[in-house]
Amino acid sequence: MSLFVIDDSTPGEFLAVGARGLELPPPHARSYAGVAEPFPDELVIPRSEWQARIQELEQRGATIRDLADRGGIGVKDQQQTNYCWINAPTFCVELARGLQGQPYVPLSPASAGAQIKGYRNVGGWGREGLEWIVANGVAPVSQWPANAIDRRYATPDTLANAKTYRIDEWWVLDDKSLDQTISCVLRGHPVAVGYNWWSHEVTAVGAKWIDGAVALEIANSWGAQWGDNGYGVIQGDRMTPDDAVTPRTALIAA
User: Fold this and answer.
1) What is the pTM assigned to this prediction?
2) 42, 102, 214, 250: which has the fewest C-beta neighbours closer than 10 Å?
């Protein structure tokens, strides 16, 4: 598997091939109170353990990406929408379900994003997607096409079924906390990460140890044609997110 690496020197043309749409709010407005719990300090993995844990997961084939590949969970493709901010949390729901042994059901980011934004193709930010998914879930693409910003799909049956695909519990990470982000992915929790420098939100799915330092593996929402089958690795200062949330458990339907 070849690595598609983004670092502090990566030319801008490699980062601007798809629609984006992240709109991070000012720090004082970024509250997740009542929606997500703060990431517990006791779950932060010391940096001295990162290399060994990364190597152990890779040797066992037990990374989040390994699970996604085995389960046929493909990366998202937001196409011409500005919905990166809801594609990443939706991919997190799919991964969280897979990690719990639930069957893969492709979910529609637009089913949440369109309703949140009043059926406008505009950017957003993590809390909006988080609050919606906790309360309302995400519809399967069999009922609402992935990028259809169209209220015709918001039928009572579709909206009721979307509630089957909810997240029970989330953690919100501290702003600009690489330690919490790496700890999450090493513990098997995908993270929706927002980057001001990229105006983009992606999904952190793992960590790599490259040239004596940690790197963050991400799944983008620009389809499998981007990077390495839709995945890439961020190194250096660019890998520290400005905003990050991770699902703890997905709803298990009765």
Assistant:
1) 0.94
2) 42
Q: What is the DSSP letter of 74?
A: P
CA angle 21, 239, 5 (to 5 degrees): 95
Sequence-distant (≥ 6) Cβ neighbours of residue 170 within 8 angstroms: 32, 35, 36, 37, 130, 134, 245, 246, 247, 248
Structure tokens given for 14: 């490699």
Tokens of 52: 């060994």
Helix axes of 84-99 and 109-116: crossing angle, nearest 10 degrees = 140
CA atoms of 128 and 179, how far apart (whole Å): 24
Q: Please state, in angstroms and rounded to a whole number, the distance separating the CA atoms of residues 223 and 230.
A: 6
pLDDT tens digits for 208-248?
999 999 999 999 999 999 999 999 999 999 999 999 999 88
Query: What is residue 208's DSSP assignment?
Result: E
CA distance 189 to 181: 9
CB 175 within 8 A of CB 195: no
- The answer to whether 50 and 210 have CB atoms below 8 angstroms apart is no
Average pLDDT of every residue of the chain? 92
Is the Cβ–Cβ distance between 115 and 106 less than 8 Å? no
Q: Sorting pLDDT into bands at 50, 70 and 90, what band is 9?
A: confident
Q: What percent of the chain has pLDDT over 70?
A: 94
Q: How far is CA 117 from the centre of its chain?
A: 19
